[in-house]
Amino acid sequence: MTQIGPDSECPTLEGADHLSQTQLLTRLTHVCRYDRLERPKRESINGTNGPVKVYARAYIYFMQNLEAHDLQFKIHALLQFRYVDPRLVFREVAPNRTKPIMGEQSLRDLLWVPHVFLANERSSDILGTAEKDILTSISPDGTVIVSTRISATLYCWMNLQKFPFDEQHCSTVLESWMYNEDDLVLLWEHKSPVTLAPELHLTEYVLLEMFTNETVINADLSDLRHGAFAGNYSSLSFTVHLAREMGFYMMDYFIPSIMLVAISWVTFWLQADQSAPRITLGTSTMLTFITLASAQGKTLPKVSYIKASEIWFLGCTGFIFGSLVEFAFVNTIWRRKRNVEVKKVNSKHVLKQAITPRPARKDMSGLHKSHSCTSLADSATTVSANSFNNYLTVHSIPQKSPSSATLPIISTTDVDRAMTEASNVTIQIEGQTSNVNGNGWTTMTPQEVAIWIDKRSRFVFPIAFVIFNIFYWTFVYYV
């Protein structure tokens, strides 16, 4: 047994082939020849100490769907770091030992290992139950490989302007914590730096591509990114490019919203004076759509910019609200008492008269006073003894010829006297068989105007909604 005297504090490495792994490791890491607080020495070309090169590799076991409301995602991964520590070379002292020394947490605690942290980490843990999943190996040439299985929740700063047609780039960023670029450089392995498990599958997203990057992060005293130490720090990152799957949103939001907008158009087939069914249909459609839109908005963060989904819901809300306004408009017209005259039966003239109704044209402003008749002439009227008092108001319209400025000829007819024992009077104004007068103007009743607007709305609203869809989907997929 070798005696260690006061003049010889370091244990000898002779006969290392016959030592156990623990004995060999204990002698290699003895304080006389190994300080785990110092980084490995690496001589450069000019004879100075160069930075330690640490090669990294990642294997992704699991990736959780992005959580848009928290701007984060979760991964389970194996992180592996490889570097060379010349102080741990045992190839010369133990030429017959060809296999590496392997251990777990206890072996790692004896060695210098690079301190690499996740820059966009929210939380992380080392996987494992009683023993954490850490594997450390030392090769005869001094190559150290440290493998750790971790679970990490990482921030992903998503852009939701095109939600739910968005594509996201989410990165996992590794940075050196203690040593700057002059002392330590992080590099990706040349072969398969990042590998995804074959069984890895995302439900809401599809993976388009994945790429790695090596960069340098400048830290200064203003942001305290690396504590109180300023300098350039080596950094690695791998980014996944994800596209959101549209099936869920089409079935749960877009198709139901299109159906609700179409249901709101049913009011155009109901008569304008049917207030109860039209109000019930319009308000119930609006409330249902608001509930649908609010349910979708609860899953998203409150951002300052407008999203594509909000443009869709605002557009659909506008069409449903427009159908309610159209009903209020035609119902108001239906309840008017005066007829209107239009020069032509088209949208321009009918809507103009509907908004600002006039009983006659400007050159007909001088109307004669109304003549109220409480009885009919005996020579032109035949009524029963039980007839009711009839009140008839006839307006005299001035004619171009003075000789023709007479009252119209009015005749009354008693109908179904035996059935009702009451006089039903049918009034016919002779000479007025059409609503188009001699000057080419057309007289329309308020009911005719309301029905005319409803008929046009049956085509205008669907066509406008189709145009809105064309612009919307063009923006989504091509802008």
Automatic annotation (TrEMBL):
GO molecular function, one term: chloride channel activity
TM segment ranges: 253-272, 311-334, 459-478
InterPro entries noted in UniProt: GABAA/Glycine_rcpt, Neur_chan_lig-bd, Neur_chan_lig-bd_sf, Neur_channel, Neuro-gated_channel_TM_sf, Neuro_actylchol_rec, Neurotrans-gated_channel_TM, Neurotransmitter_ion_chnl_CS
Record key words, sorted: Cell membrane, Glycoprotein, Ion channel, Ion transport, Ligand-gated ion channel, Membrane, Signal, Transmembrane, Transmembrane helix, Transport
CDD domains on file: LGIC_ECD_anion, LGIC_TM_anion
Domain Neurotransmitter-gated ion-channel transmembrane: 254-473
Localization of this protein: Cell membrane
Topology versus the membrane: Multi-pass membrane protein
Major location (coarse): membrane
Start and end residues of each Neurotransmitter-gated ion-channel ligand-binding domain: 22-246
Any one of the GO CC terms: plasma membrane
Pfam families: Neur_chan_LBD (PF02931), Neur_chan_memb (PF02932)
Catalytic activity line of the entry: chloride(in) = chloride(out)
Family: Belongs to the ligand-gated ion channel (TC 1.A.9) family.
Protein name, UniProt field: pH-sensitive chloride channel 2
Organism lineage: Eukaryota, Metazoa, Ecdysozoa, Arthropoda, Hexapoda
